[in-house]
Design goal:
This protein is an all-alpha fold. 85% of the residues lie in helices and 0% in strands. The radius of gyration is 17 Å and the shape is rod-shaped.
Amino acid sequence: TSLKALDDLIKLCLIADKALDTEAVSDIHSDRAKTPGGDLDDDGTKA
């Protein structure tokens, strides 16, 4: 059963990684669309 639990944990980690990657990419695209020059103040309010 420990192997199955480990397998489930790995799958969860992979799913979380994919979700984070997708979120990061969409953030970059939305930032570029809003401010072509890159607005530091905008980034500061998000963090």
